[in-house]
Amino acid sequence: MTTEPTPLRLPALDPVTLEARTGTGYPEPFRAAVANRERRALGTALGLRNFGVNLTTLSPGAASAQRHWHAKQDEFIYVVAGEVTLITDAGEQVLTAGMVAGFPAGRADGHHLVNRSDHDAVILEVGDRTPGDVATYPDIDLEARDVGGRWGFFHKDGTPYY
Fold it and tell me: pTM here?
């Protein structure tokens, strides 16, 4: 005889019960690169305030973000499943399940992940929520700034996109 598992209750949860967010706040024409990215905001669902945790699925061809670096935010990624290409100023390297990468705040090394495989890749993303952060995108005319707890997008000359 088998018994049904007891439903989880906070502080535990099953990530598949969370809504997968698609899309991005990026202005056009920068949205297409992340169009096939899904994120489940684990940290927010668990009430975490000091750092965010996303369980991110990248479909084949999808990027995690535009290539960027943060002035104040540390970032950490863990490859849960699949294979991604990590692209930084130093070049490219393939990461597979179980591998990690970290991006210290203030290090001007643009980075992102691209799924160049034929299968979905799943990444655990962790970043702090330091107020006043700025993200710089070295390859495109884009800068993101923390504006009262929300990201605002600007041209590099400071003109807002919206």
Answer: 0.91
**Euclidean distance between CA atoms 59 and 71, whole angstroms:** 28
Topology of domain 23-134, per CATH? Jelly Rolls (2.60.120)
Tokens for 24, please give them: 């991005």
pLDDT digit string (tens) for 3-56? 777 788 999 999 999 999 998 989 999 999 999 999 999 999 999 999 999 999
Mean pLDDT calculated for residue range 63-76: 97
C-alpha pair distances (Å), 71 with each of 39, 44, 58, 131, 146: 23, 22, 25, 11, 11
- Transcribe 15-82 into DSSP letters: GGGSPPB---SPPTTSSGGGTTEEEEEHHHHTT--SEEEEEEEE-TT-BSSSSBEESS--EEEEEEES
Q: What pLDDT is stored for residue 1 in this prediction? A: 65
Q: Give me the half-sphere count of Cα atoms (radius 13 Å) on the Cβ side of residue 122.
A: 8
pLDDT of residue 63: 97
Interacting residues of 81 by C-beta distance below 8 A, sequence separation 6+? 97, 120, 121, 122
